[in-house]
Amino acid sequence: MKRALTALAACLVALAATAQSDRQLTLSGSLQTDMLLPQSDDKTGAKKTEDFQTNTYLDLRLQHRDFEAGARLEYLEHPLPGFEPDFKGWGVPHFYAKGRLGRRADGATMAELTVGTFYEQFGSGFILRTYEERMLGIDNSLLGGRLVLKPMPGITLKALGGKQRRYWDWNKSFVSGADAEVNIDELVPALQQSDTRLMLGASWVNKHEDQEDILTDMTHKLNLPEYVNAFDLRAQLNKGNFSILAEYAQKTADPSYANGYIYKKGSAAMLSTSWSRRGLSLLLQAKRSENMASKSLRREYDINASAINHLPAFTQDHTYALAALYPYGTQLADGEWAYQAELGYNFKRKTALGGRYGMNLKVNYSYVRAIDRQFVDGQQRKALGGQMALAATDGYASKFFKWGDDTYYQDLDITLTRKLSKEFKLSLMYMNQRFNITKVRGEAGGIIHSNIFVADGLYQFSPKTTLRVEAQYLQTKQDEGDWVYGLAELSLVPHWMFTVSDMYNCGSSHIHYYQALVTYNLNAHRLQLGYCRTREGYNCSGGVCRIIPAQKGFTLSYNYNF
User: Measuring CA to CA, which of 13, 183, 347, 501 is 20 to 30 A from 32?
Assistant: First the structure.
């Protein structure tokens, strides 16, 4: 397989030469390589396992009229820390050919067929989301085929099927599905005239996995469903400055390692609404899910591998270092009630609060709580770790609107951004956070309550010279205690950027985690050289998390887009 895929990549490179002489044939792509020359570090526990480590990706895409083909070469024979051993290897795991057929009267393509590997999402992803996120080590693409039909304006139909990628292999189970979306406003001109848009959508996903022997004791084995079906219904209405989205998904019995091999149905429901006018915006969201961990491999033990679906966390993806110290990961198997509210307001210029240049206020509140679960034997037990107490039962009963006993996560953050002069802009943030490290990560410590303060200043010396400085402080009596963080970033447009930072633990470890970076940009090229010491922790995005071990050493990153 590796030889065949490598040959495919070679063919694409050969065809690329033709692109120079054929104006209708275009070649595009990117090269990304991240390297580490590791060093051992007794203070952080960082280990030097190899002299050189790298994650390298080469993407190529050829387009010619109504045809497109692409492939990605991945080289992780010596992977970065946190990517071994599963990602160790190299090959061409992503390759596809796509054809477009037929044209409607308005010029839009009527049909699109893809064969090979592809990514897809139905609705919000409750029952299907395949995607690539390199920093998290996620690539759960499907190998098979996908057909997209747009027979008339406002109607999109999809059908797909394939096997799911698991690192350097594909699971034996088969995933298939269909999706339909109808934009009513494109079919009813009167709605467009009244500035109203209405979308209705429905999806279905099926997983077929052969029966296998999973014993509950020495004499009994589970009768496993070979077919697991999931359904999704959604509607979205936009009227002027107002928008509302409602979505509901349900999954049939899907006993797996993730849920303790119980036979309870899964479900997810979401309501999201937003409203805005000039200078003011409001977002309100609520989501309830239970037993919605969906894997293409029922024995899957890796929390991020073989995932068919995705549920958004409804928490902020913080970019400040200390605000992101305790990120939240969606509890797919156990379920959760999640709420988020966000208010944005711009104070007008030349007012008492707005000052000469105006001021922006943003308030965000997130709260995640356990759902009510009444277990069949009156106590909470899981099948993880070999315990099979609840296997072959429904596991638990749950009242829809009732909360459970545990708070998983809560944060309230307030950000003020104000331009104090033509050259200087200041952002101030306060964040109050509660993170249940025991329930979310399975670690001792209970709820970590922290207060986080951030000052972020940007001074522009000239159109080409900018200095940005951050000062952060995290106060807590739990876990490792208080933290301080400082950063200075000098930008010399268009080529250079110099960055230094230090994160210091004032509590239990008293360790400095430092980083120095030099970045050079030239047209489509970006080169970054650095030296760092980083702590062990979690890298999260959208409620999906991956643990990253401690690191120390020289880093080199190169990116090229063409």
Answer: 501
